[in-house]
Amino acid sequence: MLKTSLSLIALVISSQSFADDALNKKLTAEEMEHVVVSGSRVFESIDEVPASVTIINQQEIEEHLKVNPELQSLLSQMVPGLAPDTGSSSNTGQSLRGRAPLVMIDGVPQSTPLRNGSLGIKTLDPSAIARIEVIKGATSIYGNGASGGIINYITKQAQSEGKTEGEISLSSRFSAVKLEESAGARLSAAINGRADKLSYLFTASYEENGVQRDAEGDILGLQYGLSDAVTENYFTKLGYDFDDQKQLQFSYNFFSSQQKTDLGDVVGNINDGEKTYAIHVPKELQKRGKPQGPEGNENITLKYTDYALFDNTQMTLDLYMQDIENIFFYSPNLANPDEGYDGGQSIISSEKKGARATFNTLVDFDNIEATFIYGLDALNDVTSQPLVDGRIWVPEMDMNSVAGFLQTKWVINNDLVVKAGVRQESIDLSVDDYETLKLCRSATQCSVPLNVKGDTIDYDATTYNVGIKYNLLAAFSPFANYSQGSDISDIGRLLRAATVNDIGLIQTEASIIDNYEIGFTSQFDDVRFEFAAYRSTSEFGTTNSFNETTGVYEPVRAPQEIWGYETLVDYMISPTLKLVATYSYVEGKNTEDDIYLGSRQISPPKGTANLNWTPNDELSLSASYLYVGSRKRFEPNADGDYVGDQGPISSYNIVNLSGRYKFTHNWQAFMGVENLFNNDYYPARAQSYTYGGYNIKGLGTTVTLGATYRF
C-alpha cells in the first residue's frame, strides 16, 4: 500500500530535525544507525548507505576549533582516507583516497575543478557548520570534480522557536615556544530565531593571526602560510514556511582569508635538509605582490522545497551563483626577462551559475520499500587563471553542463539494501585561441610560447553505480559497491602547458574512474568497528613530469590504479569516556610504466585517536593523537636529489589537548594546545614536495584561550 503524503512529510521533517539535533552531540552507537545523511541528494539513514561515510558532528567541530581553526586540520584528524594536514592554507596534496574530492557547502560546489588550485577546503568558517559529511570514492552524483569523493559542509539551521538566541566567542592563539608577535585574536558571533513563518540565522567571524612559529621558535615560511592572515566570514540563512509542506530558503556566504604581512622568506632546500622560514626584512625583500588567499569569495543559494508535491513525492529546486577569486603567491618561476617580468602572481577566477531539480518518490510494496531519486542538473562554469600583471596563463574556459540522473534504493524486509543509479551528462567546453606564456627559471631555461587554436570540446558520459548492504546482524553488516565518476578536472593545467598548436591535439579526454569498495560495520554493545577496502582505476590520470630544458612541469596522461583500506573503532569506555581511533593506508601506480604515484596523490599511512572525557555537564576534556607513517618509494636523481613530489617521508607524531569549563548556563571558557610536546617535524607534504618554498616545518606548541557567552 502506498505511503500517504503526510507520512512522507513526517519522515523528511523528523529526519532533518534529528540530523540537526542529534549530530550536534556525541552519539551513542545505537543512535548512529539512525543518523541521516544527505550525500545522495536526499536525507537517508546512514545504515542504508552501502559505502564508507564519515560524519563529523558539531561537538567534534567545536572541540577541534579549540585547538586549530583550520578545516584542513579538522578533516585530517577525523576522516580516514584523507591525507594529513598540510599546515597551510592550501590543500594541495591533501587527497581523499588518492584523488581530488569535491568540496561543497550545502551541496553547492566550492572547488574549481577546471583549474584546481587546491584551495576549496578553506571556504567557510567552522562556526557556521552544523556537521560535515564525507562520502568516499568516485561519484557522479554531483557532477564533475568528485573523483575522490565528496566533502559536504552542512550549515547550521535556526534552532530557536520564537525568541532570538545566539552566542559570542572571543579567543586568542599564540606560540608557547616564543610569544613575540605570535598572539592573534578571533571573534565569532551568531544569532538565530523564528518569527511566525520566517526563520533566520546569521553568523560572522573575524580572525587576525599573529606569526606562526615552529618548535625552534622560527616563523614558518610564507608560501600558503597562515602568519599574519586576516580571515573574515559572513553567513546568513533565511527560511520561509508557506505551510507545513512548502519552504523557501535563501543563503549567502562571503569568505575572505588573505596573508597581509611585512615578512620575507629565507628559502631552504629540502634535499639539503634546510627549512624555509620567514624573517623581518627591508621593504624591497618583503613578500611581493597582492596578499595571497581568497580575496572575497561569494555564494548565493535559493532553495525551494515541496515535501508533498504529489503523493509520496518530494521536490527540491536549487538555484545558485558563485564568484571566486583565489590569489596565489608571487613566484619567480613566472618570469619573462624579455618582457621585463622578474616573476608573477596568478589568480584563479571562477564564476558558476547552476540550477538543479531533484525529486524523491517513496513507494511501499509489502516487504519492500522503494525510493526513486531523479532530476536534472544544469551548470555554467567560467574559469581562468590570469596573472595579476595582465598576462594570461590559463585562458578562459567556458563550460556548460546538462545532466539527468536516476538513483534507486530498495530496502527488502528492513535488512537488505540495494542501490543502483545512472547519470547521463553532456558537457561542452569552449576555449578561444590563445598563446601559452613564455616562462623562465633562468636565462637559459625558458619555455617556448605557442599560439594554440581554440575550439569547443564535447564530452558525453554515462556513469553507473550499484551497491548492496545487509543489516540482518548488528555484529556483521557487510556492504559492497561499484561506482563511476566522470572527471574533466584541471583542464587548465593541460592548456597552460600545451606543446602543440591545436587544442584538439592536447590530451583533454575525460577520465572515467571506476571505484570498487567492500567493507562492513560491527556493533558489540559499546564498541563499533568499521572496515573498508577499495580499488579505483582510471584510463587518463594526470601526473607531472619536469622538463629540465624548459624548466616547466608538464602534465602526463596515463592510466592509474589506486588501492587501500581504512579502519575505525568507536569505543564507549564508560558513560563519560569515549575513544575513536582510525587507521588508513593508500597506494597507487601509473600502470602504463608500473611506477608509483607521487605524494600529490598518494599520502603516507595515517593513524588517529581521539579521547573525550565528560565527567559532568560543566567539564569536558579531549586529547587527540595523529600518527603519520613513512613512505619512501622513489630514488634520487644522478645528482643525489629528489624531484617533484617524490621526496621520502619520515614518520612523525602529534598530540593535542583541549578542554572547556561551563561556569554558568551562559558562560564557558575553553583552551586548546596544539603539538603539546613541541615535536620538531616537517608535515608530510613539506617532506615530499621538493619545489622551492614548500619545505616549511609544522607548528610548535601553540595555545588557544577563549570564552563563549550564550544568550
Automatic annotation (TrEMBL):
Keyword Metal-binding: no
Topology in the lipid bilayer: Multi-pass membrane protein
The TonB-dependent receptor plug domain, residue ranges: 47-150
UniProt keyword list: Cell outer membrane, Membrane, Signal, TonB box, Transmembrane, Transmembrane beta strand, Transport
Keyword Methyltransferase: no
Domain TonB-dependent receptor-like beta-barrel: 241-676
Main location: membrane
First and last residue of the signal peptide: 1-19
Organism of origin: Pseudoalteromonas lipolytica
Subcellular location field: Cell outer membrane
Domain of life of the source: Bacteria
Family: Belongs to the TonB-dependent receptor family.
This protein's name: Iron complex outermembrane recepter protein
